[in-house]
Design a protein that fits this description.
Largest sheet of chain B: 2 strands, antiparallel
Distance between the termini of chain B: 30 Å
Number of strands of chain A: 2
Number of helices of chain A: 20
Strand content of chain A: under 5%
Structural class of chain B: mainly alpha
Largest sheet of chain A: 2 strands, antiparallel
Shape of chain A: globular
Strand order of the largest sheet of chain A: 1-2
Number of helices of chain B: 21
Shape of chain B: globular
Number of domains of chain A: 1
Oligomer: heterodimer
Radius of gyration of chain B: 21 Å
Radius of gyration of chain A: 22 Å
Strand order of the largest sheet of chain B: 1-2
Helix content of chain B: over 70%
Strand content of chain B: under 5%
Structural class of chain A: mainly alpha
Order of helices and strands of chain A: HHEEHHHHHHHHHHHHHHHHHH
């Protein structure tokens, strides 16, 4: 196959940008801000170009670029995307410039370092979604940790150090276990392949041949790492800390992209590599997902801090995604994919909005607010649309994903139990409760706090950030086919890999 | 004495260093400008020997009546020793003025220690191992106590000497038993008769004692007691020398003997014992390092943990294990040189600025040093794509190939623990406000030495391929 360098270019744009940025003078903040933005916009434009050249009638990996990286250990630089990765790639490159603009006012110290870490983070995120070699995937997976750790630790809130260290150690513990699993998988695969490789596409053909016991260990090792990232109940405890302490841009990227890596990992690795174990554990993981939906919603309901509320709502939303993945029907997996994008947009936007009001009042306590509809009508309007989208109002994006997941899990033969759907559906109601209740307390009613009269409405810059997000929220809600078509063949292929795993003789 | 000039040429790196020592002694005696000349003379000697060694890795031969091997892995080790020592000399130019050991002997004794190491790495006979080990160790004892007016330095030297002599006793006793059971000291002859010998209890005991003796040199559990005190009391640059090339020399002896012994089929005879050493070193080092307040002590415990990871490769007993150790050692040498280099820059007069708290807010006071130290800490913690990660990855592959998955998992647990204390330095430097206004100043030589080390750490991480190829081509 001929190598296509587009994805490698995509990786190198933010990387080069980050390196060039080091030569800027720290005082020259304006130039740094515009440069960072320009780099991330160029990356987005290239991602769009890739999208327009993507053949959505194929579930195979496209734009493949492969060469030997470390010959002696059979490690390849092997990148390529399918429809699922493409959507997440678009999401990543779309959100990064928006967060960079949003932090122009929020980040006042060490702007150069901040922009550097954001671009560095983008490299890691893009890398995770395009890697087709387990080793390469692992490298990007870890590389991404460092900038996020600094973003939380340097620019975060009061408890930032605790949150940063907790985030780092939690994720590191999970990923190191995944590393052993990767090596073990590759060593074990040599019995079938005759040679050592960490190449995902080759392992796809042999890993499903392992016995159920072997698959179980490997499945659990991978799943642990991804479940921490998602985060799946009961491994979610790092999330509220990290979210609340991170600066707005950090929260947006964390919710928008980083959490998706866990669910993406399930789809890309667990299901196709260990189909037997995936079916075996589908109910178990789905139970955790459903607990997460209800638990996240209930805990979100009692939060007094807006950011914490949104953070816990993430636990609930990601529960839907995981349920969709492990229901293993075409509808539910498609729903999970689109819900990943939805959550990135809606929750990302919620964090942006919370950040915007925080910059004006320096508090996120819900009780501080009340009646701001009269004072900041434009803000209230955007908050309403985004909240409704997060709730899953028909016509906006959230509905499409949740509906497909519920429909798919209802029909699922793997789960074969209606209760998953029934309990998860109540989660939708809870979401309406906690978000609308928050909205009511913050926006409606009388102005109880006289200090609120002094706050100003959204600036042009802030509206400029939110409008593109709203466009996509409505677009996915009204005409989801644009996006569903991109991933359809890829999800079909993954489900085929699960239902009809390859069979072969021992070599 | 020499069969031909080829033999002389093959062992030229050793000859260069030996001749260098003699020249340096004369410079020290007769030149007024000795402190200007000696460091640079030493660096030139080390670079010449090192690059000669790496350039002629292909010339494999056994010389001096089957006493010394040259070429192949031996030359790779010679290269590592010499380059490491050159970096230490570069770091020392400024440091020894600050530390109060401004004597010419300092450089000469570094050269003798390197000579000892080179003999160890090339040894084909147990006697040569012993000879090299003693040359190296005695040089180290002197270097540890170089500041004779300082109590901590004297304590370090005495402790190192007493425990070192004790460990050497084990080693010699082990060698005696091996000789008693096999009637030879030639490593090749022993390995040729390994299978019949492996049933002999005397021989097994001998090898065990041999391993114990070297556990001391590589700072592995349970012979690690000397490490924290000696690392703390010695001049920082010298600690850098012990912990990097000194450890590499210890491992080279184990590799030389074990690779020969394990050429046979009974390669897993010592696996349980080595695995136990590895487990305890990794866990003990990582856990105790968390509680340290002095950065040199912290790095000492981290050094114990790293010895544990490397022993995994030895326990695996396959060729990828050996390749893994060599790669890991190389990475470790440069990571630790960078770390100790930066510590020696930041260290003030009279052992000040060694506590962890003096690193608080360093990113504001000296962004360059903080950035370099952060990269070093991430490398030591094993974050990809830096060199430390590939070292771990490589030994873990070896362990899993040898059906020692559990050992790799223990390694993972220890790595996770160790992440905590490595990133604590980063937390201090970047997230905490400064506790003092002290701004570290550094000379060009020091910063160049650190930059080279960090650069190697990054390059070995991004493009380890050609170096791995070089190692594996000789295994």
């Amino acid at each position: 196959m001929e190598n296509n360098l587009l994805l490698t270019y995509l990786l190198f744009i933010p990387l080069t940008g980050a390196v060039v940025l080091l030569f800027f003078k720290s005082e020259n903040e304006k130039a740094i801000k515009y440069f960072g933005l320009a780099v991330s916009v160029i990356a987005f434009l290239l991602a769009l170009y890739i999208y327009f050249n993507f053949d959505s009638n194929s579930g195979e990996f496209q734009f493949v670029h492969k060469f030997k990286w470390i010959a002696n250990l059979s490690i390849f630089y092997h990148v390529g995307i399918d429809g699922i990765a493409l959507l997440l790639l678009l999401l990543t490159t779309f959100i990064t410039p928006l967060t960079l603009i949003s932090s122009w006012s929020g980040i006042t110290k060490k702007v150069k370092e901040f922009t550097f870490f954001m671009l560095f983070l983008e490299v890691g995120m893009i890398g995770v979604f395009i890697s087709l070699d387990l080793f390469l995937f692992y490298v990007f997976w870890e590389v991404m940790l460092i900038p996020m750790y600094f973003i939380i630790g340097v620019w975060g809130g009061k408890e930032r150090i605790y949150a940063a260290v907790k985030f780092f150690i939690y994720t590191m513990a999970g990923s190191l276990i995944m590393l052993v699993a990767i090596v073990w998988l590759s060593v074990h695969a040599t019995n079938y392949l005759g040679y050592f490789t960490t190449d995902l596409v080759e392992l796809y053909s042999v890993a499903p041949l392992f016995g159920l016991d072997v698959q179980t260990y490997l499945f659990l090792a991978f799943a642990l790492s991804f479940a921490i990232k998602v985060p799946l109940f009961p491994l979610h405890t790092w999330l509220p800390d990290a979210h609340v302490q991170a600066p707005t841009a950090g929260s947006v990227i964390l919710a928008g992209v980083l959490l998706k890596m866990g669910t993406y990992g399930f789809l890309r690795f667990n299901l196709p590599l260990f189909p037997a174990a995936s079916i075996h554990f589908a109910s178990f993981i789905s139970i955790l997902a459903v607990i997460g939906i209800i638990y996240g919603a209930l805990v979100a309901m009692v939060q007094t801090d807006m950011k914490k509320l949104v953070a816990y709502s993430s636990v609930a939303h990601l529960g839907f995604v995981v349920l969709g993945i492990f229901a293993m029907t075409q509808e539910s997996v498609q729903g999970a994919v689109i819900q990943m994008i939805n959550h990135g947009l809606s929750t990302g936007a919620l964090f942006l909005l919370v950040g915007m009001i925080y910059e004006r009042t320096h508090t996120r306590e819900i009780s501080y607010y009340g009646g701001i509809a009269k004072i900041v009508p434009v803000y209230s309007f955007f908050l309403m649309i985004v909240s409704l989208s997060s709730i899953g109002l028909p016509g906006l994006n959230g509905f499409v994903g949740e509906f497909l997941i519920l429909l798919g899990s209802f029909k699922s033969t793997v789960l074969n139990n209606w209760w998953f759907t029934i309990i998860a559906a109540t989660g939708v109601i809870f979401a309406a409760v906690y978000l609308l209740w928050m909205y009511k307390r913050v926006v409606f009613g009388e102005v109880t706090n006289s200090k609120l009269n002094e706050i100003t409405d959204l600036t042009k810059r802030e509206i400029f950030i939110l409008v593109p997000v709203i466009i996509f929220i409505v677009w996915i809600g009204v005409y989801p086919s644009t996006f569903l078509n991109v991933s359809e063949k890829s999800t079909t292929k993954i489900l085929q890999q699960v239902s009809q795993p390859p069979k072969a003789e021992l070599k | 004495m020499f069969n031909n000039t080829q033999e002389l040429f093959d062992m030229l790196p050793v000859v260069i260093v030996a001749a260098g020592i003699l020249i340096s002694v004369f410079v020290e005696i007769y030149s007024e400008r000795r402190m200007k000349i000696l460091p640079w003379l030493s660096i030139i000697i080390f670079l010449a020997a090192g690059f000669h060694a790496i350039y002629y890795t292909g010339n494999k031969s056994v010389i001096l009546q089957n006493m010394l091997a040259t070429g192949g892995v031996t030359n790779i080790f010679w290269f590592i020793f010499n380059i490491g020592a050159a970096i230490v000399c570069l770091l020392s130019i400024n440091y020894i003025k600050k530390y109060g050991t401004y004597f010419g002997e300092y450089y000469i004794i570094i050269q003798t220690s390197v000579l000892g190491m080179m003999l160890i790495a090339g040894a084909k006979d147990l006697i040569v191992i012993f000879l090299g080990l003693e040359i190296m160790s005695i040089s180290f004892y002197v270097l540890a106590g170089f500041n004779r007016k300082r109590a901590s330095s004297n304590e370090a030297s005495l402790k190192y000497f007493l425990l070192g002599a004790f460990a050497t006793g084990f080693l010699v006793y082990g060698m005696a038993l091996i000789y008693g059971s096999s009637a030879t000291t030639s490593i090749d002859t022993i390995s040729a008769n390994f299978i019949p010998l492996s049933g002999n209890l005397l021989f097994i005991t001998g090898v065990m004692l041999f391993i114990i003796g070297f556990s001391f040199k590589i700072a592995a559990f349970p012979f690690h007691m000397w490490v924290p005190d000696v690392y703390q009391g010695s001049p920082t640059t010298i600690t850098g020398l012990f912990s990097t090339v000194g450890k590499a020399a210890g491992f080279s002896a184990l590799i030389v003997t074990f690779a020969a012994l394990f050429g046979g089929s009974s390669s897993h005879l010592f696996t349980p014992y080595l695995a136990a050493i590895a487990v305890f070193s990794m866990l003990y080092g990582s856990i105790v390092a968390i509680m340290q307040d002095n950065i040199k002590r912290m790095l000492a415990y981290s050094s114990i943990a790293h010895a544990g990871y490397m022993i995994i490769g030895l326990a695996a007993g396959n060729s990828s294990g050996v390749a893994g150790i060599i790669f890991y050692l190389t990475a470790y040498v440069f990571m630790n040189l960078a770390a100790f280099g930066i510590v020696s820059i930041i260290e003030g007069k009279d052992e000040s600025n060694l506590s962890l708290s003096s690193y608080a807010g360093l990113s504001n006071r000296s962004p360059l040093l903080a950035g370099l130290l952060a990269v070093t800490m991430f490398a030591l913690a094993g974050i990809p794509p830096l060199a430390g990660f590939f070292g771990k990855y490589y030994v873990f592959i070896a362990a899993i190939k040898a059906n020692l998955t559990w050992l790799a998992i223990v390694g993972i647990v220890a790595s996770t623990i160790s992440v905590y204390f490595y990133i604590r330095i980063v937390v201090l430097m970047y997230f905490k406000p400064s506790e003092s206004e002290f701004i570290p100043s550094y000379s060009a030589t020091e910063i160049i030495a650190v930059l080279i080390s960090v650069l190697v750490v990054i390059l070995l991480g991004l493009a380890p391929g050609s170096f791995i190829d070089l190692i594996t081509s000789f295994l």
